[in-house]
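Troubleshooting: if your tokenizer reports a length mismatch, compare your output against this known-good record of 151 residues.
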Amino acid sequence: MKSYKLSFWTSHHQFYIADGLSPFKTDSVDFWTTQAFEDKLATEEGIIGVGTACYGDVKADFDILDREPVDIDFSDCDHVVEASLNIRSGTLQIFPCISNESILDLRLDPNVYRVRVYSFNLTSVIGDNGDDYYKILIWPADFDVRKVLKQ
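Known-good structure output:
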């Protein structure tokens, strides 16, 4: 397992996990749909949008796994959602909203991956600030639709 600690500033209550070849269609009508807002996860070709509670500072852990985690306890999480992401380029990137500079660039084997986002401390956010925190896991897996595991 490889782990990365992330701390960055983003806007519009979101950040992106993308394939290096993504057309970056975050303005698509199919991206931030009403259901995607509710699920806190938007999907489009080569990109996932992660919804955050705060507008600004984001803290997250990002872990690359060999396989899907088992025996996971969601009781401490406020929200858990996952979706598939096709990494065709062999490069995964994480971008703050409204930035064309990635905060993380990783080499991954070209493959379909499952991305799971755990959200914590969402109720701590008052206005635009709080102690919300995100744990992101990614592993190779067959393509599947977005699924909310805890809401």
